[in-house]
């Protein structure tokens, strides 16, 4: 299958959209940016709610819009599933009635698979007024999937939920990328949702794509710095579970062929893929390998980059980019005093210490 291709221009108010990007044909692509950057407008163009001035929109080889070929499929023929911030369920229909609304050809097996995926079978005979906010959103996701779309668009589906309801829905969203073989575009302003859900990240600013790529790469890029304060600056890794040490309740992960890492025990099978977040403030640097320390993770590294960062409250800190292995980098945040005391320079060999206990279950996402 080909990628999802978006190439269009559109003037909306004072914002001129000039988008030219190819996105993965499966998995969750997060659309991220400041309020008013154009995140929702981008997916509304795909859905047909907004008509571009010119360009082309294509899912695989299927053209939804082409100004050159004079193609502009109506919304009902685009095969697009859309989940809004609010569930928008019909109050006079049961959950089953809401799920079946708009289905042109009922497929009992597919219906059951979606109901089971979202764990909404006990809700089928209830009316929306008897559902929690999280249950309503799960039903809305199910209704969108049951239309058997070629793409699923989600516009901040957790934004209207309180924290307990978000935690209720999040596990089901995590499973979508693995279970649903279509592209999912997920608009969000939440860094936590990006970390938990996204495979690919698109950063939008004033109607333009300023960065796009695998979430691990974009997360550590310069364009994401405005969203990372001192406590949030971190590195994302894709790795795997190597072994479980149940006696000590710890798990060994592998970030690269020669880069192991011990963390607090993570629930998952050996060989499972993981995404790991390591905060830069949890990394300390040494010139020599320590011989007696409680810290289990001592990784040889080479200084790649040194950046001075000015904090809003007036303090200055140093961000140090370390190479652990080819294409495997780690950020550490230290003080200017530490920089001067250690005499760090680009190209120097050092050792990075990472406390395994500082990495919690919330920092590790295991693929299902």
UniProtKB/TrEMBL annotation:
Q: Which residues form the ABC transporter domain?
A: 1-231
Q: Does the keyword Acyltransferase apply?
A: no
Chain ranges of the Mop domain: 292-363
Say if the entry is tagged with keyword Transport: yes
Single Gene Ontology MF annotation: ATP binding
Question: What does the UniProt keyword field contain?
Answer: ATP-binding, Cell inner membrane, Cell membrane, Membrane, Molybdenum, Nucleotide-binding, Translocase, Transport
Checking PANTHER family in the record gives: ABC TRANSPORTER I FAMILY MEMBER 10
What this protein is called in its record is: Molybdenum ABC transporter ATP-binding protein ModC
Whose protein is this, by species?
A: Vibrio porteresiae DSM 19223
Taxonomic lineage of the native organism: Bacteria, Pseudomonadati, Pseudomonadota, Gammaproteobacteria, Vibrionales
């Amino acid at each position: 299958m080909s990628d999802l291709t978006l190439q269009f221009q559109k003037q909306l108010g004072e914002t001129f959209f000039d988008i030219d990007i190819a996105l993965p044909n499966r998995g969750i692509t997060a659309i991220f940016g400041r309020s008013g950057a154009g995140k929702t407008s981008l997916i509304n163009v795909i859905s047909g709610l907004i008509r571009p001035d010119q360009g082309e929109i294509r899912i695989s080889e299927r053209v939804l819009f082409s100004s050159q070929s004079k193609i502009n499929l109506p919304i009902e023929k685009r095969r697009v599933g859309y989940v809004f911030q609010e569930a928008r369920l019909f109050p006079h229909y049961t959950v089953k009635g809401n799920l079946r609304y708009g289905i042109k050809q009922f497929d009992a097996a597919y219906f059951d698979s979606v109901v089971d995926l979202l764990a909404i079978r006990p809700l089928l005979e209830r009316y929306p007024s008897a559902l929690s906010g999280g249950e309503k959103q799960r039903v809305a996701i199910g209704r969108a999937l049951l239309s058997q779309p070629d793409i699923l668009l989600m516009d901040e589906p957790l934004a209207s939920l309180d924290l307990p309801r978000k935690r209720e829905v999040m596990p089901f969203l995590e499973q979508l990328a693995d279970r649903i073989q279509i592209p999912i575009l997920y608009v969000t302003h939440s860094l936590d949702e990006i970390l938990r859900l996204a495979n690919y990240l698109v950063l939008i600013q004033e109607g333009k794509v300023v960065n796009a790529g695998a979430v691990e790469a974009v997360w550590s890029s310069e364009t994401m710095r405005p969203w990372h304060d001192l406590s949030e600056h971190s590195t994302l890794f894709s790795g795997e579970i190597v072994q479980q040490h149940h006696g000590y309740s710890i798990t060994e992960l592998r970030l690269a062929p020669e880069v192991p890492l011990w963390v607090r025990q993570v629930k998952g099978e050996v060989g499972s893929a993981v995404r790991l977040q390591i905060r830069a403030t949890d990394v300390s640097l040494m010139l020599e390998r320590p011989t007696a320390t409680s810290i289990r993770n001592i990784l040889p590294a080479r200084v790649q980059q040194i950046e001075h960062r000015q904090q809003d409250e007036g303090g200055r800190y140093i961000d140090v980019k370390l190479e652990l292995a080819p294409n495997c980098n780690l950020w550490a945040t230290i003080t200017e005093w530490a920089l001067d005391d250690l005499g760090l320079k680009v190209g120097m060999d050092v050792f990075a210490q990472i406390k395994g206990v500082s990495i919690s279950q919330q920092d590790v996402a295991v693929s299902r």
